[in-house]
Each structure stands twice: as structure tokens, then as C-alpha cells.
Amino acid sequence: MERRTIGAGALDVGAVGLGCMPMSWAYTGSQQRGGESLRTVHAALDAGVRLLDTADMYGPFTNELLVGRVLKERRADAFVSTKCGLLVGEQHIVANGRPGYVKRACDASLRRLQTDVIDLYQLHRADPEVPIEETWGAMAELVTAGKVRTLGLCAVGARAQRSAQRSTPAAGPRRGARGRGPGAALYEGTIRQLARIQQVFPVSAVQAELSVWSPEALETLLPWCEARGVALLAAMPLGNGFLTGTLTPGQGFEPDDLRARHPRFTAETMASNQSIVVGLRRVAERHGPEVTPAQVALAWLLTRGPHVLPVPGTKRARWAVENAAAAELGLTHRDLTELAALPLAEDSWE
Known about the structure:
This is Aldo/keto reductase. By secondary structure, this protein is an alpha/beta fold.
């Protein structure tokens, strides 16, 4: 698999990562099986994937425990990324960026992951009650202590930002030519945070939603990363599964599945966005019967620049291997022209 780097230390990873969250959090709990998830992580590593992305809140904690079982056997094969800063309660999730908590959270993650060092430690969300510089300074001390190699920040979710924009008439319509529009404003807050913490300790990676149907991060966030040699980890690169073409409008989701409450996964909006999947499938068919819309969506992300690393999540070994193979798919000028002309996604509030 093609290799890409994270941070000034040029830590080497495969161009496509593996998001481990669906194995134990947020997606169809009845289909989460530990044995199959372990096989999925092993299959991804066998296919050339190195970046395994998890977080202490996934489960909570069970996702790190699962990844730790693989790392115990194959630590040298993996680049492990985990996150801190969010606490999961019975009915709510709250941010905690207090320095003492961050350090305790890191030690707990190290134990669950069965490793001596975390390759990339990400702040999941800034705590509004704690200056982000203080949180980041505590994370930097973890690097000095040899417990962490590099640091990253998760961007505030684009979905929340889009919702806020729609309450402001000046935001205007979102649909239109790809690469233009109000997307620049979606990450202004994140870029301000990045500018502040960069003064404390270098940022090696930023994780943000980025896909064919949510390309807003390309407008300002990716240029910020490129100018500083920072990796952009593309979260939800397959649109929570929609861009795979395997979901049917109106199929419904289990109550614990985040898509059951997601505005893009109502029957009406899924039907409205089918043209995006049709376009991906049309490009895939030109490359042969074995190529899938998901692979085209991931390959498109890889053409956005060497700093972009898609991190598709799955709990199935078959999909992990298929996703990894997207790194070998070369898109043509015709392909890219057609993909650039695809409409942006509609949401249920539009």
C-alpha cells in the first residue's frame, strides 16, 4: 500500500487507515461481535493498513481493549491513534480537558491498549471550562515523558456547524459547485484553536469529516494543514456508510445506531442523495466489476493531496480489505471531472 506520513517526525503509515469505532460504538449494537472485530483488525493489518483509530469514549473503553488484544500480538505492525477529552455518562457526553485528567486518561489508555507508547494522541473535544493551551500543555508533557509520540486535534463536527449556519440567513444555500460556498466558515473555530495550541506544541494531525458528500474541510482546513506539514485524517470518508451504495432509503436503523437520528439518513434525504451514489458507481464500473463505489470515494480523497489519510470505519473484515485496496485505484481525469460535478449532500432541514 502507498505510504503517507504524520507530523514533522514523518511517522510512516498506510494511505488508508482503519476506524475501529463501529466495532463497539454508535453503529448497530446487535451486530457488534468481538471475534469478528478482531479478525477485521488483523485483516486490515495484513492488507497494509497501519493506522488504527480508536478512543477511550468508544464503548466506553471496550474499543481500546479490543485494539489492545491485537496490539499485544502485532504492535510493530500498527500505528495506534486514540483520543481523550470526552466522558460518557448515562444520558450525556461532556468534555474534560483538565490537565490532571488528561494524564490519567493517557495512563488508562496505555493499559487498555497493552502498549508502552501511543503513536498519536488526539484531543477529542476542547473543554469550554479549561483554556485549550492548558490541556494541550498536559498532552505535550506526555510526549516529553515518552508515553505519546505525536499530538492531534479532532475538529468540531461539521454537522453541528452546518446546523448553526442554517440559523443564519447570511449563510446562504449550501448546494452548488464543489469547492466553493460557505464551507470555509465551518472550520473557523477549529483553525483558531489550532493556531493557539500550535504555539504550545506542534500539531501533527487534525481529524475532521471529509468525503465526496461533505468536502467542506478542503476549503480552509486542508490548506492550513498543508502549509504546516500536518496530516488531515478524513473521518467518515464513506458518509457513515451511505457512499458504499449498500444502504436502502427507508431501511431504518436500530435505536442505538447514530444514523437513526442523523438528518441525512431519513428516507426522504437518502432518496434525494442517491445521485451521489449513482455517480460513484458509474466511475467504479469503468474500472471493472470488482471496483466498488466505496473504493472510488476513498480513492478520490487520496487525490486531494499527500496530507490526506482517509480513515474508514468498519467491523467487517471484507470491507476492511476492500477499503485498503482503494489505495491502488488510480482515477482518471475523466473520473475526477465527473466526481467534481456531483451534487453536495442534502440534509433533512434543507
